[in-house]
Design brief:
Elements lengths: L7 E2 L2 E2 L7 H14 L3 H6 L17 H10 L1
Antiparallel strand pairs: 1-2
GO molecular function: pseudouridine synthase activity; RNA binding
InterPro entries: PsdUridine_synth_cat_dom_sf, PUA_sf, tRNA_PsdUridine_synth_B_fam, TruB_C
Keywords: Isomerase
Length: 71
């Protein structure tokens, strides 16, 4: 075996929507210096796009309370 790679995980696959950390850094730099958010919106996808295959997600109240108190 030469290479072991995860080519699919949930709604994400290897050929769609993947970016490098350099892309994210470049998009942040463009936004900071030129106030152009188009590239930033292109490389960062909303979390909801990953959760489209789930019918329901249950979150405990204690998990929400924990996040609120840390802010």
């Amino acid at each position: 075996m030469q290479e072991l790679r995860r080519v699919r995980s949930g709604a994400m696959d290897e050929n769609k929507g993947l970016v490098t950390l350099h892309d994210v850094m470049d998009a942040q730099w463009i936004y900071d210096h030129q106030r152009d958010e188009s590239y930033l919106r292109e490389v960062i996808h909303p979390l909801e796009s990953l959760l489209t295959t789930y019918k329901r997600i249950v979150v405990k109240d204690s998990a929400c309370q924990c996040r609120v108190l840390r802010c």
